[in-house]
Amino acid sequence: MIIHLKSSVSPQEAARLAADHQAIHFNDGSQEVLVLSAKIKEVPGTLQSLTEADFPTDTDIQLASKSYQSKLREITIGEVTIGGDTKNTMMIAGPCSVESQEQVDEVAQVLKKLNVKTLRAGCFKPRTSPYTFQGLGEEGLKILADMHDKYGFNIITEVKDSSHVDMVIEYADIVQIGAKAMYDHSIGKRCGQTKKPILLKRGFGTTLQEFVQAAEFILSGGNPNVILCERGIRTFETGTRFTLDLCGVAFMKEKTNLPIVVDPSHAMGYRYGVADLTRAAIAMGVDGLLIETHPNPAVAKSDAAQQLDLDEFQKMHSTLQPIAQAIGHTLI
Ligand code: PEP
Ligand code: MN
């Protein structure tokens, strides 16, 4: 149950009411909001005279639910707006990891030419093995900041653990929480305290309900700018790296008010198939795509098998606008 309190209720009073009702409290920019357990279906008597509007919800998908806000949330990042009534599909592209200034600049030049506005690359890599490349850390963030200054890109880069979340928030235009970090509530809570857009990836072993509940940690901290990212889940199938859950994308479109990004690169795990899955996702009317591309994937320090080379990326990109247009979307 979500409750919008009357404007006569001060933030201090709202905090006290929240403590009394074991509720979460935040200010959404215009009013004090309480989020009570979803099991509560009626406004408690003690809150009735202080309540301006109430929104009972079926499950712990509360702030993200259509029953709270039926309209898709709108998020603006620099010159790019997604969600709301925009029907924009944001292309996010770049290498898996920042490896050097030259490597990122080579990708950036191609993306700039194609009018892609959002550059991705990781500096803190959540690797499965401790013996592989772990990312350049802050040195990588500085390279990305240069790309922002030189070409005007929005930068998206990932946090891996809470030790550097403040630093990443400082450098990035969109903060990515990776699949393995999805359950890290110290990251989620810190990301709830900023207004910076957060792209939350679905853990590969999580249900849709658990995934959206992780988004609720950020939303209920007071950050409305959350983007959900489907990046493939683990199934019995081993022929591909993961299985892209497009049914899950349809579920999220139906049930939630959050913009949705699809990442075919990590789902597929191989460069073949990435272009086809990208086209399928665009045809579903998603709000964004996240594609890995590298000047020379054969020598990439992470995710070498799945990154498109720059020619493959350009070839794929040239096929996308007509698909977006066919369903009334614009690729930006
Ligand atoms: C990535 O985007 O490079 C990445 C590590 O993704 P995921 O968290 O989905 O594995
Ligand atoms: Mn990667």
Report on this model:
With 332 residues, this protein is an alpha/beta fold. Helices cover 33% and strands 19% of the residues. The chain is built from 12 helices and 15 strands. The strands form 3 sheets. An 8-stranded parallel β-barrel has the order 7-8-9-10-11-12-13-14, surrounded by 7 helices. Strands 2-3-1-4 form a 4-stranded antiparallel β-sheet, covered by helices on one side. It starts with a strand and ends with a strand. Residues 96, 122, 126, 178-180, 201, 231, 266 line the site of phosphoenolpyruvate. Phosphoenolpyruvate (PEP) binds next to loops.
For this entry, give a set of tags.
2 domains; binds phosphoenolpyruvate; TIM Barrel; binds manganese (II) ion; 15 strands; four-stranded antiparallel beta sheet; 332 residues; alpha/beta
- Spatial extent as radius of gyration: 20 Å
Q: Give the strand tally.
A: 15
| SSE sequence, one letter per element | EHEEHEEEEHEHEHEHEHEHEHHEHHE
Which homologous superfamily in CATH is the superfamily of the largest domain? Aldolase class I
Poorly predicted residue ranges: none
Question: So what's the CATH class of the largest domain?
Answer: Alpha Beta
Strand order of the largest sheet: 7-8-9-10-11-12-13-14
Q: Helical content, roughly?
A: 25-40%
- Name the shape in a single word: globular
SS-derived structural category: alpha/beta
Number of domains: 2
Major beta sheet summary: 8 strands, parallel, barrel
CATH architectural arrangement of the largest domain: Alpha-Beta Barrel
Count of helix runs = 12
Assess the beta-strand content as a share of residues. 15-25%
Fold-level CATH name of the largest domain: TIM Barrel
Spell out which ligands are present. phosphoenolpyruvate, manganese (II) ion
